[in-house]
Design goal:
Elements (H helix, E strand, L loop, with lengths): L1 H32 L6 H18 L4 H22 L9 H23 L15 E4 L2 E4 H23 L1 H11 L1 H6 L5 H26 L5 H16 L4 H21 L4 H15 L15
Antiparallel strand pairs: 1-2
Helix pairs in contact: 1-5, 1-8, 1-9, 1-10, 2-3, 2-4, 2-8, 2-9, 3-8, 5-6, 5-8, 9-10, 9-11, 10-11
Length: 293
């Protein structure tokens, strides 16, 4: 029983870390651009479908897909931000909600038209197949790879936002956009880059989860609710709050599977209600300002 619990905690960490990637992208776009991106799940799905195209249809392999698919998603996201979304900055927030809701529906139908309405096969690469064994503990190598990639991406995102000149501009633009503009720095390209980063991270989550969760048109819609739950639990505008919430949700779901499997999905909603009763702003939520363009 002990090793079963450890295995489920490890599985929960894997699920929690790729949930965290999705939630970080969503939180980043919202806290800096003031847009609730209801199409975030569509970018997650697009990442998975681009990975299938790069890996199988183009024959470049899984590892090329991990590098190229998120970049493709980020480029699509930045094009959408430049052509459409930036027109809505400073407007009534409901306009952003309506636009991204329509974008989500359009993206899902576009996926059905391009790749078909049925799921596509996308297996674990042979190099990452197999299971690690240690005494009574068993854990697939691919899940370890997901954990490593997600942790590395979270760390890289934090370093980008806190240890680079780009991150300094983002933080300054959030707290005092007038001063940044007075220094001759244009914030619209920063907003575009932030949006591309957020949806690119979602695309990476889609690539990594595809061999386990499957690749099908509605996969983005199915994951979006869990992403919002994690952002709410962690606290809007809090980087580490989202990371902590993702890990907590993953572990809670993993442990619930052991003791009462039918309640695994409901467990994260119960956790959200509990957290909001104690801390309405979330675990590490704080007052936010919006990055103005």
């Amino acid at each position: 029983m002990f090793f079963i619990i450890i295995e489920q905690i490890a599985n929960g960490l894997v699920v929690g870390t790729y949930y965290t990637l999705l939630a970080l992208g969503l939180s980043l776009v919202f806290s800096l651009g003031g847009v609730v991106n209801l199409a975030h799940g569509a970018f997650y799905a697009l990442g998975a479908y681009l990975a299938v195209t790069v890996s199988s249809l183009l024959g470049l392999g899984f590892f090329s897909a991990v590098g190229l698919a998120p970049v493709g998603v980020a480029l699509v996201g930045m094009a959408i931000e430049v052509l459409f979304l930036r027109r809505l900055y400073g407007e009534d927030p409901i306009l952003g909600l309506l636009f991204t809701f329509g974008l989500a529906i359009t993206a899902e139908q576009a996926i059905r038209l391009i790749w078909g309405g049925t799921g596509l096969p996308f297996g674990i690469p042979p190099e990452l197949a197999g299971v690690m064994t240690w005494r009574g503990f068993l854990f697939p190598y691919y899940r370890l790879t997901i954990l490593a990639v997600c942790v590395g991406t979270i760390a890289a995102t934090w370093l980008l936002l806190n240890k680079t000149s780009f991150g300094m501009v983002v933080r300054a633009g959030t707290s005092d956009p007038e001063m940044v503009r007075a220094l001759g720095i244009r914030l619209r390209p920063v907003l575009t880059a932030v949006f591309g980063l957020g949806v690119g991270i979602a695309g990476l989550a889609g690539v990594m989860s595809a061999p386990l969760a499957g690749v099908q048109p509605a996969m983005g819609t199915e994951i979006l609710t869990a992403t919002f739950v994690i952002v709410v639990i962690g606290g809007l505008g809090s980087f580490w709050g989202v990371v902590l919430a993702g890990i907590l949700v993953g572990i809670v779901k993993g442990l619930t599977v052991i003791f009462y499997p039918p309640a695994a999905e409901a467990a994260m909603y119960a956790l959200m209600v509990l957290v909001l009763l104690v801390r309405p702003r979330g675990l590490l939520g704080e007052k936010m300002d919006r990055l103005e363009s």
